[in-house]
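Subject: Sanity check before I submit

Could someone independently write out the structure tokens for this chain? I want to compare against mine line by line before I put it in a report. The sequence has 499 residues.
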Amino acid sequence: MNRLQYRLIAAFLVVLAVTLCIIGVIWVLVLRTRPVPIEETVNDLTATLLDLNFVNEWQTFRQQNRLPRRDEIEQLAVHFTEQADGNRVLLLRGNGLVIYDSAGEFKTDEQLPIPPPERRLVTQRERLNTILASGIFRDKNDVEWVFSSQRFTLTTEQSPGIEIMVATPRPEPTIGYLFDTYGGTFLLPLCQAGTVGLGIALLLSFWVSRSVARPLQAVARAAIAVAHGNYNLKVPVTGPSEAQMVAQAFNEMTEQVKLAQQSQTDFLANVTHDLRTPLTSIHGFSQALIDGVSSDPQDIKHAAQVINEEANRMGRLVADLLDIARIQAGKMQMLRHAVEFDRVLTAVGSSLAIKARQKGVELHLEVPPLFRIAGDGDRLTQAFTNLVDNAIKHTNTGGHVWLRAKPLDGGIQVEVQDTGEGIPPEDVSRIFERFYQVDKSRNRAKQGGTGLGLAITYEIIKAHNGQIQVVSQIDVGTVFTVWLPVLGGDRSTILTRKV
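---
Independent answer below. Compare away.
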């Protein structure tokens, strides 16, 4: 029952069952506010009244053309009360004045609050100068009483006659009464509709739960496959919008994991290659020195120089790797202070101007006075030196490189543009990866680089809460755009952390 599909089905059924119960409770509450019809009660009271057989007693008084005396009334009242099956018995004069009340509520000659004969609810029949009637009256406590009465008159029209009444409290609509009265017309159809609804809900809930559970089950299976190293598996984006979002997010995640795995594989391969090359040179020349292959001082000096250069290259490579690792881990020591950013950029341009002239590349510096920024001046110098140096390397003789800056959107935007060979579109997204090389045929050692310059630049800019983007076109050139916040913004841009 822990499966999502079963739990959804159970939830649908519980909701429907609760809804039916609520409808049933509302039905009971509404019907209980409706007054109970009194016809059946009146019939029972009328039968009890006729069983008292007051007609025979009345014939004696009618023949004598007189009303019964008080002692005769008391005898009759006691007799009728005993025979009334626990119902209330009242004797009234024809004008509605009470003669006797078995409940003792209304005293003698007290007016009973009932409608006059001509306004009573039901007049059943007349016989032997008697009138059978029924209706409702309220006692002094505002309790409704259903009554059936029999009125007798004398031959003298001036005589008001006498009326005997049998009454009982108006019945309340009990649960049993509601089921007995409305069960066949309402409750049974409700149960039938509920049964049909439960069946339909079961089918619909099964379909809905399946539409939700199946995409999630597909994601679960794909997650297991990814855990076993299959990064090419894609989950179908189907089902409800929420399930589609999960599937789409999973596909994006696996794509990122795949790229990370590929990047890690390339990184290991490139590190291995970049370490093997200088080690091969060091090993070869050192072995030649050990074996005494040549006694010429120039050859020995050349071998020692090669060993020294390759060792230095390996040292730079290791240092750059450590820099990236420290920056990514937040452990790189970056001094937080106000930096005159225009001076940083001017210094970068000046330091690379000679290199540009030696290659025959014209370096343009367009740096106006700028706001100060919060950061590490040395690391920022390193980042922009990497960008400008990289632009010079990839620009042919006679080309141009621009280093320009301007205030923009609460910060400073810096552009490093060149007219070099450009970057293929498929390589632009990976240009900041460690050791990534656009032209695989180039020898990094001949260019004097470690293949980590752009990766370090990216991490430095990100550590300063900045942004870096690249736009390139083959045989036209490349533009690196950097944005950094000024000092007046978030002063916590850089955190100083010790190694």
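---
OP: Matches mine. For the report I'm noting this point. The longest helix spans residues 175-227.
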